[in-house]
Amino acid sequence: MYVKKPTEDEYIVNGHDLNDIRNIIERRVCKAMQEILPVTLNYDGCKICTQDIYALSLKHLRPIYVQVGSIILQKTLKDEEIYEVVKESAEQVYKSPNHT
Ligand SMILES: [Zn+2]
After folding, report:
1. Buried (b) or exposed (e) across 13-33, using 16+ Cβ within 10 A?
2. Side-chain half-sphere of 8: how many Cα atoms within 13 Å?
3. Are 16 and 8 in contact (CB under 8 A)?
4. Is 95 strand, coil or helix?
5. Rounded to the nearest 5°, which phi and psi values hold at 85?
6. Gap from CA of 20 to ligand 1 centroid (Å)
């Protein structure tokens, strides 16, 4: 199945914009990747591996969907847990990258 880039209007339901409902884990995974990947030994820096590590990490972390602009009182997921998942995902991708 070909996945195309979504357009904004595909997320409008009954006139309400659902683009503002975001998985807050995504940004935390990006932050962890920005810190971890440059210091891991086997990171080749390519787009495919970077995207695969991101997707694999998110697959292993339960999403937390919130309305943009809302206030999160308590982090239910520790940074350490996210870093651990990113590290494991990176190792897995380095072992069998989706390119030669
Ligand atoms: Zn690569």
Report:
1. eeeeeeeeebeebeebbeebb
2. 4
3. no
4. helix
5. -65, -40
6. 32
Task: Compute, in angstroms, the gap from residue 28 CA to the centroid of ligand 1.
Answer: 22
Instruction: Calculate how far, in angstroms, residue 74's C-alpha sits from the geometric centre of ligand 1.
Output: 36
Cα 96 to averaged position of ligand 1 atoms, centre (Å):
10
Query: Dihedral sign, CA of 89, 48, 50, 54?
Result: negative
Give residue-wise pLDDT tens across range 70-98: 888 888 899 999 999 999 999 999 999 99
Give the number of other CB atoms < 10 A from CB of residue 52: 20
What's this model's pTM, rounded to 2 decimal places? 0.89
Structural domain spans, the chain: 8-95
CA of 69 to the centre of ligand 1 (A): 35
Ligand 1 centroid – CA 14 distance (Å): 42
Tell me the CA–centroid distance for residue 38 and ligand 1, in Å: 13
